[in-house]
């Protein structure tokens, strides 16, 4: 309304100015409430019958409320993203390049899983891998964890849940095609329900997913579950020290937030700002001021690491 007021001289009169002053004085929504959405595929493998009924009668319009939750953005998450932006000195790239340069992943894993992936597949694959690593943690290991481990665990899991939330319910804020994002999110949930539907506990889910990742299956019926499981198995086998494993995952997801923020979705971000805003919108504005505009990756997915 303010933009229209400035542009139209015919509006520069008391009849318009008084209502505008009233609206500006009494704000009914905050620009950003300091919260982020969370969505985890494996937590929705066994939907509650009542939630399934509500989803059915609402033609899935209530799925965002039924399958997600909102949490206050942990300060360590915000710090991790800003620290990563400072460390890379504005040279944003996909996290797999950093993993290769640090010697964390080998080229065989990289070529098989990462080559040519789109943003949506990239996010979902790593969300699955991170979720499997999280499910594999036992209660004693969490209770005896160090402060650094807890911090990295929070950063990795909360950003993983937030990126999956954006993919499934706010795809217009991501640089990928909206239909592709929704298709991958819904298809992965369907595959997870088919593959893990008979599992009665997280332990059963974990064992079945680890077996899938170890078998290096390429069965299209499990889709990205196979690729995510392979990454999880690789991390679990190579990094027995859980502190190091979650340190790497935390850095990776902080980089992921920077990687998916630049886009040409200015209208979508501006619209979201007017109705509350999103964490990714703030990062988008930040990198845009640093003249990082548009998709970071070339068309058609990520290139060869060489």
UniProtKB/TrEMBL annotation:
InterPro entries listed in its UniProt record? DUF594 (IPR007658)
Instruction: Cite the PANTHER family for this sequence.
Output: OS01G0798800 PROTEIN-RELATED
Instruction: Give the protein name, as stated in the record.
Output: DUF4220 domain-containing protein
Q: Which organism is it from?
A: Aegilops tauschii subsp. strangulata
